[in-house]
Structures are given as structure tokens and as C-alpha cells.
Specification:
Layout (H helix, E strand, L loop, with lengths): L11 H4 L1 H16 L1 E2 L9 H7 L10 E2 L2 E2 L5 H18 L3 E3 L5 H12 L5 E5 L15 H5 L1 E5 L10 H11 L3 E4 L10 H11 L2 E5 L4 H5 L12 E5 L10 E5 L4 H12 L5 H14 L2 H23 L3 E2 L8 E5 L7 H10 L2 E2 L1 E3 L13 E5 L1 H5 L4 H15 L5 H11 L11
Parallel strand pairs: 1-13, 5-6, 5-7, 7-8, 8-9
Antiparallel strand pairs: 2-3, 4-10, 9-10, 11-12, 12-15, 14-15
Helix pairs in contact: 3-11, 4-11, 5-10, 7-8, 12-15, 15-16
Length: about 425
């Protein structure tokens, strides 16, 4: 029979040699690599502590005051704190903080608003949309009739005329705005106007950029969308998890869609960590951090252009950088593997109108959240752009400089946070 862990009890990796080796390997990887993966960020010590706290042991199926188990007093208070902080941070009427991930949150939004076979208009996966925007391998493409809009060939910006024409033609029940590989601010008001014209719900997938909206750096979808999907990691630097913001009229439908329709009891330790990070993001230091992420991304995009990459849309308004790698003679997949071998983590992405298959991709997608949390600023990002260019040209000497730069950064491996 298990016993409650007392202070001083050896941790699992101290008595499990195999697990200990793997943990050491991950710590070493984080120490020696520069991370430009758009979906990752350094977590604050408090987030690590809350995820490993006593809250992890509590089962709290249901909602505060309406649980299926007893002994949920502290769990109720934690969830209510996280929800109220999310509402305050993003200016929302109602927040559901239970979703385990952003994809689960989107599934819940679909469950609240749609029936199988309903029409949806979303950003094409080939033009920067997420798998939940209609991929045949995802619930969105299997259960709904999804039409995809895209970007203009001339400048890579979202083609709002095409969005309007497709909305009029398909009369979707949901217009889904948002993308995973689109570095520009989205005109949420324009999407609202189109949704109203065809009588559609507007759902904003703002998982990538909602932190910038909280910091006041780009427009927020909250005043315009019926439902907003966000995540607590990425820019916010919190635990991996999702959340939903919605209007008062949809609150009950959203809550019922999250539980009991798509998931069971929430992870109370995750709720506690979300509450913490929502509180931290409501402080001025987070605004400074978010602004630095954008400044770093803009410098990175300019530096990559000088190295022969073509920035998609011509640059960035956010922490995201997407570039066409065609001039290097390599696919995005080849470049990300070559970069990983040198100790630099970045991702591949589709380039609109390019013939390269999605599995290989023609471009690269990067984000500056992690490197900014580590303390890198514009001069270092200029250097990183040059290093990426050298990697593309087959310069194996870049690896040593990458390791040296990674090991010189502070904080490392979640030891601290920048805000």
C-alpha cells in the first residue's frame, strides 16, 4: 500500500536508474541547445512546484460547488481563482480553465456549437492553419464539412475577400479564425463582420498570440469572438494546458462541452499552475517580456532575410517567424534536422502555394519565447540568424557557437522566469 511521501523521501529518479538517466539527458539537452520552437517556453519554478504539489493527487470531476467527489474545497477555490484571473487578464465574461490542452479546448468549442456534418470555414492547413482547422487526420476534418481560406499570393496576408466569398458560398455555422504559422496580427473585427453577415459563430484560435493581446501589443479577439481558445504555455510560460473564453450566452454550453462531453476530471495541479501564471501575466513585467519577444522576432526575421531566407508576409507582428527556405536548396524538414544536429531547435512549416509535400515542408517556423526567457536580446538573435544561415550552408562549425551561446544564457532549464 502506498504511503504519503514525507519530506526527505528519495525522489523517483534517485532510486530508478533508468529514469534518472533520461532526466539527466533532458536537462543536458535543454542546457546545450538553443530553442526556437514556437510552442515551447521556460517554466517558472513555481509552475514546476505546483504541478508536483498535493493538488496533483486530487480528483475533482465536475465544477466548483457541483463536484462528483467530496473533499474538493481547496480544489474549488483553485479553479475559481484561475477562472477569475483569466477573465480579468483577457477582459472576458466567462472562462473555462479545465481543458487539458489547446486541441481539447477546440474540440470542446466544436462540441458546444456544432453537430457532425455541419459546415465550418477555417484557415487552410496548407496556408498556416492548425490540424484542428480541418486536417483529414483530425476530428475537425473527419466530423465536419470544412472549407479552407488562405493568404494572398502577392503578400502572404490573409485574403479577407476570399474569406467573405467562401462564407457566402458555404454559409458555415462556425467561422474559425486563427493559425499556427501566421506571424501577423489578425483583424478580428473583420472576421466578426463576415461572421455576422452569414450568421456564423466566430471562434478565435488565439493559442499562439493571446499572450501578446494580454500585454496590449496586438488586438484582442475577446471583444469580437463568441469563443476564444487559448493555452497557458507558449508565451505565457505556464503549464501545458488549454482554456476557453466566451460570451455569457454561451457559458453553459461551453462548460457542458468541456465536462462531461470531452473530458473527465480536471487536473487540479494544472489549474493551480494556470492560476499562478494568469496572475503573473497581469503584471507590468510580463508586458516588457512580451514586447521583447516581438522585438527579438523582428530582428530574427530581418537577419534571416539577409541570409537568403524569404520571410513569409514580409516580416512579423508577433513572436513568430516563418520563412521560405527554397533559396537554400533544402526542405524545411532537412533544415530542422540539420539544425537539431547542431543544437538549434526550430520547426518546419508549409509555405503557401509551394509544391513541397507537408511532411517535408518548404519553410521554417520559429518563436522567440524560450530564448527571450533565457535572456537573449536583439544582438544575440542577429547572431542566431547568421548561425541558421551557416547551418543551411553546411558549416559544421556553428554547433560549437550554438552550445556556447546556450550555456551562457540565464535562466536555464526552468530555474527562473523572465517575468
Amino acid at each position: 500500500m502506498a504511503t504519503i511521501v514525507e519530506s526527505g523521501t528519495p525522489r523517483a529518479w534517485a532510486v530508478d536508474e533508468a529514469l534518472g538517466r533520461l532526466l539527466d539527458a533532458e536537462r543536458g539537452r535543454q542546457r546545450d541547445c538553443l530553442n526556437l520552437l514556437a510552442g515551447e517556453n521556460v517554466m517558472a519554478p513555481a509552475v514546476h512546484q505546483l504541478l508536483g504539489s498535493a493538488f496533483a493527487e486530487k480528483y475533482a470531476e465536475g465544477y466548483p460547488g457541483r463536484r462528483h467527489h467530496t473533499g474538493c474545497g481547496p480544489a474549488d477555490a483553485v479553479e475559481e481563482l484561475a477562472a477569475r484571473r483569466a477573465e480579468a487578464l483577457f477582459g472576458a465574461v466567462h472562462a473555462n480553465v479545465q481543458p487539458y490542452s489547446g486541441s481539447v479546448a477546440l474540440l470542446a468549442a466544436a462540441a458546444a456549437l456544432l453537430k457532425p456534418g455541419d459546415s465550418v470555414l477555417a484557415m487552410s492547413v496548407a496556408h498556416g492553419g492548425h490540424l484542428t482547422s480541418g486536417s483529414a487526420a483530425n476530428f475537425s476534418g473527419r466530423w465536419f464539412d470544412v472549407a479552407g481560406y488562405g493568404v494572398r499570393r502577392a503578400d502572404g496576408r490573409i485574403d479577407l475577400d476570399q474569406v467573405r466569398d467562401l462564407a457566402r458560398a458555404h454559409r458555415p455555422k462556425v467561422l474559425l479564425a486563427g493559425a499556427i504559422a501566421y506571424p501577423r496580427a489578425i483583424d478580428w473585427a473583420a472576421f466578426r463582420e463576415i461572421a455576422d453577415e452569414v450568421g456564423a459563430f466566430l471562434v478565435a484560435d488565439a493559442a499562439q498570440t493571446l499572450g501578446l493581446s494580454a500585454a496590449g501589443l496586438i488586438a484582442s479577439p475577446v471583444p469580437h469572438a463568441d469563443v476564444v481558445v487559448g493555452v497557458s504555455h507558449k508565451l505565457l510560460g505556464g503549464p501545458r494546458g488549454g482554456f476557453l473564453l466566451c460570451t455569457r450566452e454561451l457559458a453553459e454550453r461551453i462548460d457542458r462541452a468541456v465536462f462531461p462531453f470531452v473530458q473527465g476530471g480536471p487536473m487540479v495541479n494544472q489549474l493551480a499552475a494556470k492560476a499562478y501564471i494568469f496572475g503573473q501575466a497581469d503584471r507590468p513585467a510580463f508586458g516588457d517580456y512580451a514586447a521583447q519577444c516581438v522585438a527579438n522576432a523582428q530582428v530574427l526575421a530581418e537577419g534571416l532575410a539577409a541570409e537568403g531566407f524569404r520571410p513569409l508576409t514580409g516580416g512579423t507582428d508577433t513572436h513568430l517567424v516563418t520563412v521560405d527556405a527554397e533559396a537554400t536548396g533544402l526542405t524545411g524538414r532537412e533544415l530542422e534536422l540539420r539544425a537539431e544536429e547542431a543544437g538549434l531547435l526550430l520547426g518546419r512549416c508549409a509555405v503557401p502555394f509551394a509544391p513541397t509535400p507537408p511532411s517535408e515542408a518548404a519553410g521554417l517556423r520559429m518563436g522567440t519565447a524560450w530564448t527571450t526567457s533565457q535572456g537573449l536580446r536583439e544582438p544575440e538573435l542577429e547572431h542566431v540568424a547568421r548561425l541558421i544561415g551557416r547551418i543551411a550552408r553546411g558549416d559544421r562549425g556553428a554547433a560549437g557557437e550554438i552550445r556556447e551561446l546556450a550555456q551562457s544564457t540565464k535562466p536555464q532549464c526552468g530555474e527562473s522566469a523572465s517575468f
